[in-house]
């Protein structure tokens, strides 16, 4: 593939101005490549080919693949939100909906790759950690507030509730065959409400079984 020799636009004065359109192409190409190939197959050369820019255009902005992927995640991922609706069901449903949107959306494969690669590669773990930690803290905060309000039995375990909810959602997305994906997306609200209700029922039964 022939790269565009003027991919940064015309020179103005000293140096070259940043071109937002070029950077947007690079961000998209970086996440597309990472989502498809994972960390082992992610490199600046592949991103340059995908974005149709020169390698020099990349190296002027990002010296390493770690810096490029971290930058792409910061610009394209906005999955960290604050959830506090005053009751456990609405909070868990909001978290479940956000999780489903992230893992089934445009960059869903990226989110799934991060979960896998963060366990295998220290470099990925370092810049994926803030996203994971915020999601964990969000979930644990939801459950602890519910415990304080008396909505859950004292025996309820925040980690277990989050594992069941988030694990169930991601497994549902990954295990759904491609020919049923449209149906999965159309029925997402029904599935998520049922998932939250099952998790809450289990938490309530845990308290009764120990009484």
From TrEMBL:
Coiled coil: none annotated. GO terms for molecular function: DNA-binding transcription factor activity; transcription cis-regulatory region binding. Pfam families: TetR_C_11, TetR_N. InterPro entries: Homeodomain-like_sf (IPR009057), HTH-type_TetR-like_transc_reg (IPR050109), HTH_TetR (IPR001647), Tet_transcr_reg_TetR-rel_C_sf (IPR036271), TetR_C (IPR011075). It comes from the Bacteria. PANTHER family: HTH-TYPE TRANSCRIPTIONAL REGULATOR RUTR (PTHR30055), TETR-FAMILY TRANSCRIPTIONAL REGULATOR (PTHR30055:SF148). This is TetR family transcriptional regulator.
